[in-house]
Amino acid sequence: MTELLLIICAYLIGSFATAVWVSKGVFGIDIREHGSGNAGATNTFRVLGPKAGTFVMLVDMLKGVLAVRLSYLIPHDSTEQLVNLQVGLGLAAVVGHIFPIWAGFRGGKGIATLFGMVLAIQPLVALYCVGVFLMILFLTRYVSLSSILASIAFPVLILFVFREEEVYYRIFAIAVAVMVVLTHQKNIMRLISGSESKVPLFKNRKNKHGNDI
Known about the structure:
The chain is mostly helical. It has 10 helices and no strands.
C-alpha cells in the first residue's frame, strides 16, 4: 500500500505541466497549439526559444529526480528492491509527464523527466547521456536528434561501459532506447527529409509584447 501511494505521488509530480504553465503564464499561448503540439522541452525550445526551453528541460528533469527520491521515504530489504522501486517511481513520473492530470492528460514525450530519473538512480551514467545530448545539440541544433542519440547512449553505457549486473536495469535501459526511437518516428522522418526544425541557440525570441526573453 505504501509503495502504491508513493507511485501515485510520483505520477502527480510528473504531472506538473511545466511547458504548458510557462507558455501560458509568460507568453500567453498554449504550447500544445504550436510547433509539434507536444508540451515538452523540445517543442518549447522550438517555439519559445532557448531560455524558456532550458528552463522547462531542467524543471522536467527535476520531476524525475524528485520522484525517484521518494523511494527513500520507506525502508528496503535489499539494493535490488530499492532500485526496482526507484525505476517504478521514475516511470510513474514519466507517465505523469506524458499524461498530466493537471493539463488535460496532454503532455510531452517525457525525455527530460526520464533523464532526471536516470540522474537520480545512476548519476554518472546520466551525466554522460546529458553530455551526449548537449554535444549533439551544439553541433546540430536538433533537440530531437540529441534526445534520440542520448537515449541510445544510455543502454550502450549500461551494458558495455559500466557493465551493470542488475538484469532488470539492463532491460529497462534497452526499453528506454526503443521507446524513445518509437516516440520520435515523425522526428526521424523529418530529419531524413531535412524538414526538422532547429532551435535558435544563440538568439532570443520575442514574447507577445516584443520584449526579449
